[in-house]
Write a structure and sequence with these properties.
alpha/beta; 7 helices; two-stranded antiparallel ribbon; about 35% helix; 12 strands; Rossmann fold; about 220 residues; six-stranded parallel beta sheet
């Protein structure tokens, strides 16, 4: 029996799942993720067994800040996103064969910036500073340790011969070095980008693409 490890880039998955299937409760999203991952064990030619599902993400933002335009006080620890994400991670902790790999948010790099289209309008004179609104700003949050944990787990499992197949649910090309190492060690490396566009250098260093996400139908003209 061949063992398969499934690695999930959490930020990527939740964004794509919300786009493909809409918003869900933390419990339903967690059940959906498990079902989606287990689909990757379907193989007509090989009897596959789940080694483990690894989920990589950061805890939600729990910080108090003032908005740069309105100076309104914002407690992100009481936001709907914080409540949802906390409950979602708790649901995943309950799942069998699930391992959470959580990084950290870089506190010093959390800041508000103007959206690119707003900056363009300010520069070409179609928008005045006095016309700015609260939603013209976006909150920038940097993660630390998530990509490193994914790369280390891929390399470790390949080097120790713990699995014969690794499925990575992501669309990021930062994992190319780890994917190349896994392939050199004889691991079948499968990428599931959930129909997202991927860079050519990532597709070049994998053994195949496989996704169970239904395609979004094209809008009627």
């Amino acid at each position: 029996m061949e063992k398969t490890a499934i690695l999930v880039d959490g930020g990527f998955y939740t964004k794509r799942a919300n786009y493909l299937w809409g918003s869900k409760t933390p419990e339903d999203r967690a059940k959906e993720l498990v079902t989606y991952c287990m689909n990757h064990l379907q193989d007509k030619n090989t009897d596959r067994q789940l080694y483990r599902i690894f989920y990589y993400d950061c805890p939600p933002l729990n910080k108090k800040m003032h908005h740069p335009l309105t100076n309104n006080f914002i407690d992100f620890g009481k936001s709907d996103l914080y409540m949802w994400m906390t409950a979602f991670l708790d649901e995943l902790r309950k799942k069998r064969k699930f391992a959470l790999r959580l990084g950290q948010l870089v506190e010093g790099n959390i800041n508000y910036t103007l959206k690119a289209n707003i900056v363009k309008k300010l520069c070409n004179g179609t928008l005045n500073i006095s016309d700015l609104k609260e939603n013209d700003f976006t909150l920038n949050i940097s993660q630390k340790g998530v990509d490193m944990k994914i790369g280390l787990d891929i390399s470790s499992m390949a080097h120790k011969n713990q699995v014969s197949q690794i499925v990575l649910i992501s669309g990021d090309s930062d994992f190319v070095p780890a994917a190349k190492h896994a392939r050199r060690e004889g691991v079948d490396f499968i990428l599931d980008p959930m129909h997202a566009t991927i860079r050519p250098d990532l597709q070049e260093h994998i053994d195949g693409l496989k996704t169970y996400a239904p395609k979004i139908p094209k809008a009627s003209k």
